[in-house]
Amino acid sequence: MKKTYGFLAALLMGGIWQIPSSEAGALDPENGSGALKLYVTLEGPDALGIVDPESKRRLGTILVGGKPHDVICAPDGSTAYITNPETNDLSIVDTLTDKVKKTVEFGEEATPWHVEISPDGSQVFAALQDQSAVSIIDTTQNRVASKVSTASGPWAIAAPRDDIVYATLNGSVSKGTANKARSEDIAVFDPTEASPTAKYLTLAADTANGPHGIVSAPDGSTVYIAAQASHEVWKISVDDNRVERVAKIPDPNPNGTPLNPGFPTDLAISPDGNTLIAVNHDLDSITVINLRTQKIIETVSTGEGSEPWGAIVAPDGQTVYVSTNGIDSLAFFPMSELTDGTEGANKDTIAGLPTSDGLAWCKLAQ
């Protein structure tokens, strides 16, 4: 996930969620909270799942495009945007009716991966992995306004401010160019320019860094990057684009764990900006990092074979949610137990969720 904190989400707490083949329903103010919805991309049924976080009640699913991977919500909560790699398009959902109101096509072999939205909500950015480009969608007309070419395939995007966008570049999975050494790890551009052009940053020269997930600090001052090939977390200061290594995730395998695709793959940040969660897909774990000291607090298992992809911290900062799609489930941990300095943390799991990576919440206007 790869996004500013305010648009990310938690999920259902408790019970098993059985997904009907086709079901959708808007949040009813008479029967639900009427203010907050939780969305999760469901790769298996090609759907977006809907949950009321207060009642912990499943509201339904929305059929979208093929194998939805990521979701983001507009700042006003009115619209959700979902990338669909298999059908090379973007589903735009009206969150009041929970219906797809438009589909934006990206063309053949686009492979839209992650999605982000500008803080003012005027632009949506989709990483087109196999077109080596970032598509800019004008949200007033819900159409592609322009496309920014990148040196290699973009994976994830962060927009900490309206005038700056960062995209992690890690090649193409289908073309076999992922996790290769390259001098352009991060693309940077100003989306407010008439013809945005990417400039590039390098994490560590002559190294296969494999940048994947990216997340903005809540105050927009910093973006953090998960480098899945070098097993590191990096940060970029937005004001001057200064690059700095934050931490290296220890590999428990003395011979080196084979990359599949690597670790960490994704990041989540606490609402106070003090704690970072690194998702270790190949290690079936998460690593908790204190951002004030830039020290690892601990690494906690998400379960054997869980293959975690995405993560998010709850709005109140009390719970960390991890999408463990290797076992079609969601794991969640108390933040207090992850940061108290003692070993381990209690984990609860919701089974029966064929998740991919995307977790997002929408707070509807009152």
TrEMBL record:
PANTHER family assigned to the protein according to its UniProt record, in alphabetical order: DIHYDRO-HEME D1 DEHYDROGENASE, PROTEIN NIRF
Family matches, as InterPro entries: Host-pathogen_enzymatic-act, Quino_amine_DH_bsu, WD40/YVTN_repeat-like_dom_sf, YVTN_b-propeller_repeat
Protein's UniProt name: 40-residue YVTN family beta-propeller repeat protein
Organism (species): Nitrosococcus halophilus (strain Nc4)
